[in-house]
Amino acid sequence: MIDALPEKGVPGDQILAELRALREGDLPTHGGRLFAYVYDPAVDGLDELARQAYAVSASVNGLDPTAFPSLLAMENALVGAAARLLGGDVGTVGSVTGGGTESLILAVKTARDAHPAIKEPRLVVPSTAHAAFAKAAHYLRVGLDVVPVRDLRADPVAMAAAIGPDTVLVAASAPSYAHGVVDPIPALAAVASERGVRFHVDACFGGWILPYLRRLGADLPPFDLSVPGVTSISVDLHKYAYAPKGVSILLHRTEELRRPQYFAYADWPGYTMINPVISSTRSGGPIAAALATLRSIGDAGYLGLAASTREAVDILSAAVEEISGVRLYAPPESSVVCLASDGVDLFVLADELAARGWHTQPQMAYRDLPPTIHLTVTASVRAEAPSFAADLSAAVAAAQARGPVEIPPLPPLTPDLITPELIAGLAEGLGLGAGDFSRMAQVNALLNAAPPALREALLTGFLSLLQRPSFE
What we know:
Layout: H1 12-23, H2 46-57, H3 69-85, E1 93-97, H4 100-113, E2 122-126, H5 131-140, E3 143-147, H6 156-162, E4 167-173, H7 185-194, E5 198-202, H8 210-215, E6 232-236, E7 248-252, H9 255-258, E8 263-265, E9 273-275, H10 285-322, E10 326-328, E11 336-341, H11 346-355, E12 361-363, E13 372-376, H12 381-384, H13 388-402, H14 420-429, H15 441-449, H16 452-466
Parallel strand pairs: 2-3, 2-4, 4-5, 5-6
Antiparallel strand pairs: 1-7, 6-7, 8-9, 10-11, 11-13, 12-13
């Protein structure tokens, strides 16, 4: 147990040693074998540069740019770089946020507040849109219209049919996180524009690599502010710009379009609160680290990293296509390899890959879409990719030998029946009580069989079980 508030202070060396010991239980953030959560360019010296830049501005507060103009200069520089990369012009403005979810919440908030006369505003998204849109709709009390996709991409005709008089925003992905495919942005933007509705492009995941892939010859459609009808776009710098977490950029085509994003409040005895983003106090550390990262890598460097990523995608995709038992589920057109079963239990396969040092992200079935395994591919994967084929073949063989996982018998469950006691017993029965998450096939199979609402309740209960302090 960690005592965060000891009676007497602990020496710094001991504290750092304790932190390093804790980190030994984490998945590897470098080395090209973790296909989710982290983005590693495998650039020597970049981590240390980012740490030093972070330290320079860690104590600076982004709340007031007149007090700390250094942060204002850094933010404007980052926004300017993103605008140039993503089809902006001299009228483009933007904000630095703490992550993609914050950028999407603000995009929805801005569209909602631009129409105060609409009492029940609505948001139209394809079913492959990131779950952060559902979170934004929930937080902001905006109705959510989820439109089925066609061939994993947003359907412009179906999206157009979903737009109504209360629609304040239409959104789509470039690319979608789950499958890595780019929605038909020009057609969707035209539909929204014809109806007089704002259109947001969620490029949080891959927006910093798509322009470079296009420059390398990838057959990808236009997706950014150069497309007529696109009113805003978001991109995460802590993804394919390889900056430390968490830094995202939300761009608007014009200052007028951005204005409803701001929150201002003067009707109290303290300072007048004026915030462009959700947070008030913001550390300058991540912003300085992001600026240092971009300046260190540079445009030519990002082009090279995109080329390495693309090579890794090609190698991994070829391995999947050559091995019986699995298949590519989506076209590997960006930086994602998405595979489905062709006779093997995918959840067992994920465990077998993890046992061989490859950490993937299983995705549950959704409506008529089967379970899949998602691989986010970064530049660091290129060096490891040639060894993937043999390990995948061995993992498939081992998964076939083990056979499909069996779901433990459970009583009929509904979300309202999920209690802390039930979750604790279920976690113990599934072998999670001791905190060992290395074999998750049975857990994932159980979650996959549960309807979405029940799955949400189960995972919420389990996370709540984990997030409990000890008073011993």
